[in-house]
Write a structure and sequence with these properties.
The chain is mostly helical. It has 6 helices and no strands. Keywords: Membrane, Transmembrane, Transmembrane helix. This is DoxX family protein. The chain crosses the membrane at residues 7-29, 49-66, 73-91, 97-114.
């Protein structure tokens, strides 16, 4: 399973590095989006330059995936990007849906493999959070009125 994790992590990292850099360098020609909401959505991303933020997140996440120590941080950065890619293709441009599903499955596999790193945010709050003994004593400021 360790070899599969390395392969999936490297593959997903390379995908995001290549397509993230493509948003800046345009070395892979992008076909025009289909008419309608998909075109409007993509136009707004490019006109507002928001696409460069997404590209930077993709490159950063891809580089972090290639470094084994930062894979959970990479998954945290790339999670919203992957959800948006999947939703864009599911609702507006279904021609790209197979690749979006592959990327989502690869990311879900890595989330499962690194699930221990996300355990703290996936549990309910401990029972003693509201306990007064756990809270520091409140300090009051002198009243100078």
């Amino acid at each position: 399973m360790k070899i599969a994790t390395i392969i999936v992590r490297s593959l997903l990292g390379l995908i995001f590095i290549v397509f993230g850099l493509n948003l800046f360098l345009h070395f892979i020609p992008m076909p025009p989006p289909p008419e309608g909401p998909a075109r409007d959505f993509m136009t707004s991303l490019f006109v507002s330059h928001y696409v460069y933020v997404v590209g930077a997140l993709q490159v950063a996440g891809g580089l972090l995936l290639l470094s084994d120590r930062s894979a959970p941080l990479a998954l945290t950065l790339l999670g919203p990007v992957i959800v948006n890619i999947l939703c864009f293709h599911a609702f507006m441009a279904p021609a790209g849906l197979p690749m979006a599903i592959v990327v989502s499955v690869l990311a879900l596999f890595l989330l499962w493999r690194y699930r221990g790193n996300f355990a703290g945010i996936l549990v309910t709050a401990p029972a003693n959070v509201n306990s007064r003994s756990q809270q520091p004593a409140a300090r009051t400021l002198p009243d100078h009125s």
